[in-house]
Amino acid sequence: MPATSVVRRSLAVVAALPLLTLAACGYGSQAEDDGAAKVAAGAKKIDGLDSVKIGYFGNLTHGTALVGMEKGFFQKELGATEVEPAVFNAGPSEIEALNSGSIDIGWIGPSPAINGYTKSGGKNLRIIGGSASGGVKLVVNPDKIKSLKDVKGKRIATPQLGNTQDVAFLNWAAEQGWKVDPQSGKGDVTVVRSDNKVTPDAFKAGSIDGAWVPEPTASKLVAEGGKELLDEATLWPDKKFVITNIIVRQEFLQKHPKVVEAVLKASVTTNKWINANPDAAKEAANKLLEKETGKALPAEVLDPAWKSIRFTDDPLASTLNTEAEHAVKAGLLEKPDLQGIYDLAPLNKVLKAEGAPAVDDAGLGVK
Fold first, then answer.
1. Which residues contact 143 (CB under 8 A, 6 or more apart)?
2. How far is CA 70 from the centre of its chain?
3. From CA 55, how far away is CA 345, in angstroms rounded?
4. Which terminus of the chain is more solvent-facing, meaning fewer CB atoms within 10 Å of its CB: N or C?
């Protein structure tokens, strides 16, 4: 996926930026599980650990976590070590929770993982596995935008300044030859940073002409009369790009490798079950969303949204590196040193036991 360079900002400006984040779709906030997945009678604690705190977003691109929690796969692998889930609305709060020890392991997007790693000098987290690819689309008002060239001069929403979709849209706009100031969002196309919770209302009100957003927000816009103009997956080799990773506190990984391995085993089991049972899986994800938010997604949103996401154990490391390059070229990030951001040894151990092929860290693993 080629990229065109836009104006870079100084280090002082970049340092002032908020954490690059994959903004969640706003369904849910930091919360505790209702305890549906009970510890099995006679189960034993792993390494004597009482609990493991797992974070994720109330977002379909975090479907591995949603389904794994709802079906009890994580608790089953962890035995009497109790799962303590926490739901977040955005990357910065989850990274903050990881840094403070409020969570141990988390599902999160590539941009907050990159920023969290680089801002700590490579000391606070590791990416230990993949979870999902795809699930991001450009949806527009068909009365105002009929083709990709019509996007020029229009108002397009992204979830947050510097978040994964914001970087992707700025990169795509640059490839069209359009100039956009990355800070203000003003230029040949106007970028409106809008929380996914309010983007559908802004779309209905006509204050934006379209949005480059993850699922299920994209499908919510289509349900409101929008038209899918571009699926981001079509811009990537093999239509694959990382949208969700699994991260862990480095200290936790060092002290409790068996617990981490159990979580990864549950993730692999969950992804296998999702891919074998797509209809049951999307219903399980929606059931947990309903528990956490009080409202399930309607079929006209859930069905197309789920279909556009690919669940995978592969972290698609080369695409994370490309996404970092896009952020640098957009002027939103100083060139990062990502050496050591991955430790895929525990995952590859699990995959080997399952008879599955190993995954690659694109040369960015621990040495």
1. none
2. 19
3. 22
4. C
